[in-house]
Amino acid sequence: MTDLLSTYGLPLVSALVAGALIGLEREWRGRAAGFRTHILVCLSSTLLMLASTSQGAWMFSVLPGQEVIADPTRMAHGVLTGIGFLCAGVIFRAGFSIHGLTTAASLWTVSALGILFGAGLFWLGWAGAILTLAVLAALKLISRSVPDRTVVDIEVRWKAGASGTAREVEKALTEGDAGLKRLRLQLTDDGGVCRQSWRLTVHSRDLAALAGRIQSVAGVTGFDLAPRDD
């Protein structure tokens, strides 16, 4: 009984706790994959790795004179490849912005931690879990002490033929920040509406003021501000 607990119980409990801690941080920040998802990913990786390292207990017949050689690394490769499909599900695009990359990376990391626990590498697994929490939580706190700047993808629409509207929009965008990059210009609605996109780096607290400046430009019929986030 003691052997079973040390062989299977300790890896499973470690996977539950590590997945819960990392998932709790993602849940707290309101990400798509949170508490339960991270636990399940870490736990499933551990279960599959334990099954791979226990192939001697598998119920199948070996041909006479043949010997089964277990290779747990093949299971690890399969798990990490398969988890990529789940990670892709939390990455989404909104306009020109890509969201969810950090959450996808955290899912891939807890999968790797589960493999380490299943292989019996507890010290390495817990070191990885602590470092992951430090990257997700502690470094987020540190980033708050540096200037809070964010990249914003901006799309502005105005009626075609509105004289000087494009120049006035760019003037409103560059007020207080010269880091403006023009991305795309389109003519839509059978030539009735101009749609232009820019990328700008601004202070997060200035987003409302930026929206107000764009709205005040004569001829503007609509705009979208898409701040980038992880």
Describe the protein's architecture and organization:
The mean pLDDT is 78. The chain is built from 7 helices and 6 strands; from the N terminus they run H-H-H-E-E-H-H-E-H-E-E-H-E. Helix 1 (2-28) packs antiparallel against helix 2 (35-53) and helix 2 (35-53) runs parallel beside helix 4. The strands form 2 sheets. Strands 4-5-3-6 form a 4-stranded antiparallel beta sheet, with helices on one face. It has a two-stranded antiparallel ribbon with strand order 1-2. It has 230 residues and is an alpha+beta fold.
Offer a quick outline of the entry.
The protein folds into two domains: 2-56 and 70-143, no CATH class; 149-227, ACT-like. Chain A, domain 2 (Alpha-Beta Plaits, 2-Layer Sandwich), CATH 3.30.70. It is 53% helix and 20% strand. The chain has helices at residues 2-28, 35-53, 72-88, 101-118, 122-143, 165-173, 207-215; strands at residues 92-94, 97-99, 149-159, 180-188, 193-203, 220-227.
